[in-house]
């Protein structure tokens, strides 16, 4: 009887076992692989005729949350990842590799996820794992998690040491900075998410906007701008 049960289990596991979709996050600047502590030159759309034609920028840190991963079929969800919170850190290449595990017979043609953390998780207090406050991505119980953090230097910043800090977060009503994204999957065996920071910086006037450290209208606008960077290859 025991052997018969084991045989049935093996048959079922073979037919309905686990499959996976590797999700790779690739970070770029002007089409080149992003490197921290490296100076880049780029043209800013926000400069006026009195400004120099180019800006130089250096990135000291880039961190953001991807959460709520789902697989979809014709726009409808067919699988959701449990406890789906992933902190992407440019300083840690291993964090840019996400593996989604699901039933082998799952039929899907699309991928959904969020840039940031949902309001229920934010209002539920501190968590563990990638949500642990020691990761440096949590403000307070009132303001919750930082969804997207970018820090560095720009020669256009009229600040000490030309520093800029963009900490984008907020989860309540009009201050909600979480952004939802969805893509069609051309390759069901691997998803490569690309984002190029040069496109993000072109819409920022560092002379007048170089520190965002709390929820608000600017954080919402910049979060929408950050979400628009993502491309699926």
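-> sequence recovered:
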């Amino acid at each position: 009887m025991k052997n018969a049960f084991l045989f049935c289990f093996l048959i079922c596991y073979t037919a309905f076992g686990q499959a996976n979709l590797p999700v790779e996050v690739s970070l770029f600047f002007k089409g080149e692989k992003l490197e921290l502590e490296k100076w880049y030159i780029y043209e800013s759309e926000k400069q006026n005729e009195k400004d120099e034609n180019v800006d130089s920028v250096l990135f000291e840190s880039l961190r953001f949350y991807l959460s709520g991963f789902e697989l979809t079929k014709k726009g409808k969800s067919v699988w959701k990842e449990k406890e789906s919170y992933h902190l992407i850190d440019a300083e840690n290449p291993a964090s840019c590799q996400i593996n989604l595990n699901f039933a082998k017979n799952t039929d899907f043609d699309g991928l959904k996820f969020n840039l940031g953390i949902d309001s229920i998780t934010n209002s539920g207090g501190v968590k563990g794992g990638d949500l642990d406050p020691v990761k440096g991505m949590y403000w307070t119980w009132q303001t919750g998690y930082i969804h997207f953090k970018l820090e560095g230097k720009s020669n256009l910043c009229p600040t000490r040491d030309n520093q800029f800090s963009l900490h984008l977060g907020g989860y309540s009503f009009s201050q909600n900075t979480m952004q939802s994204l969805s893509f069609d999957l051309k390759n069901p065996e691997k998803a490569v998410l690309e984002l190029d920071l040069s496109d993000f910086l072109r819409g920022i006037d560092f002379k007048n906007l170089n520190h965002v450290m709390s929820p608000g209208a600017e954080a919402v606008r910049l979060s929408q701008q950050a979400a628009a960077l993502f491309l699926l290859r």
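The chain is about 15% helix and 40% strand.
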